[in-house]
Design goal:
Elements (H helix, E strand, L loop, with lengths): L6 H19 L27 H4 L7 E10 L4 E19 L5 E4 L2 E2 L4 E2 L2 E14 L8 E7 L2 E8 L5 E9 L2 E12 L5 E10 L12 H4 L5 E9 L2 E4 L9 H5 L7 E4 L8 E5 L24 H9 L3 H10 L1 H11 L3 H6 L39 E4 L2 E4 L3 E4 L8 H4 L5 E9 L5 E7 L5 H7 L3 E3 L4 E3 L4
Antiparallel strand pairs: 1-11, 1-13, 2-3, 2-6, 2-9, 2-12, 4-5, 7-10, 8-9, 10-11, 12-15, 14-15, 16-17, 18-19, 18-22, 19-20, 20-21
Helix pairs in contact: 5-7, 6-7
């Protein structure tokens, strides 16, 4: 019989994976500079959005996710599954008029924040606990529904006088979680688990007016699954055992990808997420808190957030409570916490071969001044039979095999070599400034150059 999984069981089993799952749930929720008015916060909810079927039928949006992975359950094992997603709650701002009637406005100014319309995300869970034996055949089907609703919150000024209200509206959403398992032929007893999540909303969009904003309140946002075995193990989809590679390759995952979760070496929990992760993902222990913008580096993001103007911070605080937490986190971050974000050594390995001999005693091998045989400003290399060094003019020919998109834009441009550099493996890199760049003098003064390897450059003149 399928029953809701006990809270204590879920908490214990998924504790190690929940931090990563939370990061997935709120990835991109609100981006720097954390204001609703920012352009990149106007098109939201990019990951794991399962839209109503009649909305996604003619668009590049999906109404379902399919997870398939391999597991080796022991006798009597139970499968615990938890579907998690965000539900969009549309917030409007209203101000009272002279007659006492409320009117919707674009913003409401308060001393510490500026309240604006915004789509908030509330976490929803659908937990299931079922014996693995019941997953054979048609398996189990768990439908769920969240009803529509509306809430109002009064807004008061610093003196406690009512100055407006927030109105939050939720639309009805419905879906289904299906779980099945079947035995796979092979040298060992292994089951293929299939978990399907579907948005089953019957909402029909208005072809004349409905857009993505109309579909989002009826969608499952950032949908992902936590899967746990009470006894037994899951097999990695990324790096399965050799005997299971064929079966793993036959698993079909649509709009999501399962990885082993929890500490390395454990295999009792799977996280199936709409973001591609590696097995046993983990948050950096130095991370001071959720910043909701994993495309940035925590150190840079914290520094940039701390330098926002007071008005920008007021707008961010009025955008969303989570944005307000980020502002407070950046403003109150102690220097020692910020210093830990600058970098960390995760592991050290032994280097074989002869020890490097420093040019000067007590000088680290990585110190640029540690080897007097090299000088970036005077060293030269031979390129296409010509001597090239600082002051040489070259044409840029970025190589496709290791070049990012920004470098490709510079193909064919001319540049001035600023220095010849050697890395610890003996590789040569040339630091250049692009000719015609109005910021070249500033870059040169700050020592911020573009770097290319010799086969990406062509000399323009003899030196």
């Amino acid at each position: 019989m399928t029953t809701p999984a006990p809270t204590d069981t879920l908490t214990e089993r998924f504790a190690a994976a929940r931090q990563v799952a939370d990061a997935v749930l709120f990835e991109g929720y609100v981006l720097y500079p954390y204001r609703a008015s920012a352009a990149k916060n106007r098109l939201r909810w990019q990951f794991g959005v399962l839209v109503p079927p009649r909305w996604g039928a003619d668009r590049a949006e999906h109404s379902h996710q399919r997870t398939e992975c391999l597991m080796e359950p022991r006798s009597g094992a139970r499968l615990t599954a938890e579907l998690r997603f965000l539900r969009t709650r549309r917030r409007t701002v209203q101000r009272p008029g002279p007659d006492g009637e409320f009117t919707t406005v674009t913003e409401l100014e308060l001393p510490d924040r500026v309240l604006v319309p915004w789509d908030e995300g509330t976490e929803e869970r659908c937990p299931v606990d079922v014996p693995v034996a019941e997953l054979a055949g048609d398996g189990v089907t768990v439908p769920f529904t969240r009803p529509a609703g509306e809430e109002t919150e009064p807004v008061h000024d610093a003196a406690g006088r009512p100055v407006g209200r927030l109105v939050r509206r939720r639309e009805e959403i419905s879906g289904v979680l299906r779980l099945t398992a079947r035995e796979i032929d092979g040298p060992y007893a292994v089951l293929k688990l299939t978990a399907t999540v579907e948005n089953t909303s019957t909402w029909t969009p208005d072809p004349e007016a409905a857009d993505r904003d109309a579909a989002l309140p009826r969608s499952l946002v950032a949908a992902h699954l936590l899967l746990g075995l009470s006894a037994g193990r899951f097999l990695s989809q990324t790096d399965p055992p050799e005997w299971a590679r064929g079966a793993a390759a036959g698993c079909r995952n649509e709009h999501t990808w399962p990885v082993l979760a929890g500490p390395p070496g454990s295999a009792a929990v799977m996280l199936s997420a709409p973001i591609i992760l590696e097995d046993h993902p983990a948050l950096a222990p130095e991370s001071p808190g959720a910043l909701y913008d994993a495309l940035e580096i925590d150190e840079i993001l914290a520094l940039r957030t701390a330098t926002l103007t007071d008005q920008e911070k007021r707008e961010a605080r009025g955008t969303d409570p989570r944005a307000a937490e980020v502002i407070d986190l950046a403003d109150g971050m102690p220097p020692e916490v910020l210093e830990r974000l600058h970098g960390a050594v995760r592991a050290l390995r032994e280097v074989t071969g002869p020890d490097p001999q420093p040019a000067r005693p007590d000088t680290p091998w990585w110190d640029p001044g540690g080897d007097r045989d090299v000088d970036p400003l005077t060293d030269r290399i031979t390129l296409d039979g010509r001597s090239v060094g600082a002051g040489s003019r070259v044409a840029l020919r970025p190589g496709r095999r290791r070049t990012d998109a920004q470098d490709l834009f510079l193909h064919g441009r001319t540049a001035l070599v600023e220095a010849v550099l050697y890395d610890v493996d003996g590789g040569v890199h040339l630091a250049v400034t692009v000719e015609g760049d109005p910021g070249a003098d500033i870059r040169r003064e700050q020592g911020r150059f573009l770097y290319f390897q010799p086969d990406e450059l062509a000399p323009l003149e003899d030196e």
